[in-house]
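Lay summary

Proteins are chains of building blocks that fold into shapes. Our project writes down both the chain and a compact code for its shape. Here are two examples, one after the other.
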Amino acid sequence: MEQTGTGAAICPSCTTPSPITVRQWADDFALGSLAFDFWSWPPLTEDFITEFASRLGHRIEHRIGKF
């Protein structure tokens, strides 16, 4: 069985730790364990992104280009 730990990010202003999965990062950056690449697709519409997030049931961040 795979075991995972918990991760916390420390706020540089108030030094309060918070889980990295709920932290509000600068530039709408997000950390998670699930990613999708849509190769050779036209640009994703806002309606598609909204529906995709709704079906996943989680907050998502949309990125264009390479990391």
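And here is the second example, written the same way.
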Amino acid sequence: MDQRQALVAFGALSQETRLHIVRMLVVSGPNGMAAGAIAEKAEVSPSNISFHLKELERSGLITQQRESRSIIYTANYEALGGLICFLMEDCCSGNPQICAPAAAVTACCAPATKEELQ
């Protein structure tokens, strides 16, 4: 991830509702959530949630996929990981114990893909 991409991602995450949406989608895993369910859980109107989802998708932090009559949104784990790596790439100044807590968090297992769940 380059600096321009990171700025776009941080810009998208700098709004409370969008940050909440990304966190919900991270928790939901590879199955994602339908736009209506996201709006309901975030307590936001459908038109408002549409605006936020477009901003997050434009930033590359989430993706969408049509399933029947629903649009399912999922977190883009690769982009989120890239954002974390961007922040941490020059970490530590030769003191790896400084980054150990952050490294432990980022080393967790990524959610299984839809194919792995089937």
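What can we say about the second shape? The beta strands are 33-34, 62-67, 70-75.
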